[in-house]
Design brief:
The complex is a heterodimer of chains A (152) and B (294). Chain A is of the alpha+beta class and 152 residues long. Chain A has helices at residues 56-67, 70-81, 107-117, and strands spanning 4-10, 14-20, 27-31, 34-42, 45-48, 86-93, 96-101, 127-133, 140-146, 149-150. Chain A has three helices and ten strands. In chain A, the strands form two sheets. Chain A has a five-stranded antiparallel sheet with strand order 1-2-3-4-5, covered by helices on one side. Chain A has a five-stranded mixed sheet with strand order 6-7-8-9-10, with helices on one face. Chain B folds into three domains: 2-95 and 289-293, Rossmann fold (3-Layer(aba) Sandwich), CATH 3.40.50.20; 99-109 and 181-270, D-amino Acid Aminotransferase, Chain A, domain 1 (2-Layer Sandwich); 114-178, Dna Ligase, domain 1. Helices cover 31% and strands 26% of the residues of chain B. Chain B has helices spanning 22-32, 67-79, 88-95, 99-105, 126-130, 157-168, 180-184, 227-240, 278-293, and strands spanning 2-7, 36-41, 54-57, 83-85, 114-116, 135-140, 150-153, 173-177, 187-193, 196-204, 219-223, 246-254, 257-264. In chain B, the strands form three sheets. In chain B, strands 11-10-9-12-13 form a five-stranded antiparallel sheet. Classes of the chains: A alpha+beta (152), B alpha+beta (294). Chain A binds chain B through residues 24, 40, 42-43, 45, 47, 49-50, 87-88, 90, 98, 100-104, 131, 133-138, 140, and chain B through 1, 32-36, 194-197, 224, 227-228, 230-232, 235, 284, 287-288, 290-291, 294.
Amino acid sequence: MAMIELTYFENSTQLFQVIQFRAGDSWRIVLDGELLGSIIKLEGRWVANRNTILVKGLVESIGKFIDLQHFNQLPAELKTRWSMYIQQVIIQGDDQYLIVCWPETDFVRFEKIFRTYISTLVKDRWEILFRVYDADMSADFQVLVKQGMLVQ
Amino acid sequence: MKIALVTYQDKGAYHAINVSNEDDLLINYLHDKGLIITKEIWNDSAVKWEDYDVAIIKSPWDYFDHISDFYAWLQNMESLNIRLLNPVDTLKWNADKRYLNDIKSAGLNITPTEFLSSSSDLELSSYFSTYDCEQIIVKPAVSGGSKNTFKLTKDNFESNLPLIKQLLEQETFIVQPFLKEIETDGEMSFLFFGGKFSHAVLKKAAAGDFRVQATFGGTVHPQNPSPDIILKAKAYVNQFAKDCLYARVDTATINEELVLMELELIEPFLFLDTNTNALENYYQALSILLLKEL
């Protein structure tokens, strides 16, 4: 799984590095090479882990910034576009998503649809891998998309 | 992918009217999600384990009555290359309460615990002063469900001594101070699935009892702990159960500090019917772990 590194500007002056080493982990906040601590979303609220040197307002604004990233929006877009087919989307990083279909989905038909239209939903400039599984995870296909184009 | 949900042969020992049939609730939910999952009894010799890809340990509640068989069963599952959830090393580590020493060594709060491995020089009376308490708890290092658990006072410990010594010939025991907060405030359990917080419940003992298990008449109350409290509970999971499908962190609050009573990673009751998101949280965590293997 890929590490995600974001850059967050506070008042156009301070530049924070916001880093997540793997999906589900806390986000580490780094300023001028110094680790200030980490933040995590719990019960829908962004909070700082113990020993984190960040004011509450900054925790919330960095959290909101993370929420707005496209890799966090894409799962909802996928589920909305193919609600009849997609049961859940799991973010594995900003370059990889796992998709699980509903039981009794026509998996062959969905693969054709997915391969045809997925590139219209991808906005990021880097390669993104989609691994799509049927409901009992016994069948799958993979699709690689880059800059809105199907790679394979 | 074929999945076994591992349970035990129910002989009524752990049944209580107010304990819902959680296994059925879970298996029905996962089945509706499209998973191929079957309930199996861990020590049923008729089960063809080789037919399964994954075995989820759910409720083998009698494993500590047959601990050698349970370890042999784990070994067999390993040799058959069946993936266990939780991982086999975690199950073995968690089966013996000496794991509390590891947690303490990591700098996390635990309830004070000493281990008794020999009956020859047993001086139970000293623990009342060591712990500066009126009552102590003595229970097996490998145990669950309050089996052979003693709550001793300065007045009654001597009458229980012969039995405890007899039991000590067979297995290691632990001694802990009785935390009056358990009786008055109850025990808070935090449920984590895939390392993520799912829900929490407060377990309170029945009047006059100290065992919070529903089997003994304890009651369960859903809770909404604050994020900072959740983070304190999560610290145990982050360090010792990060890759586990399920973890239950049982705690008490002593002098406003969260203290670990038990980290349950084998067969905890999950209180899935106490929170509307609990089953979905479990499924989400399970699917991530299953897909990791592919």
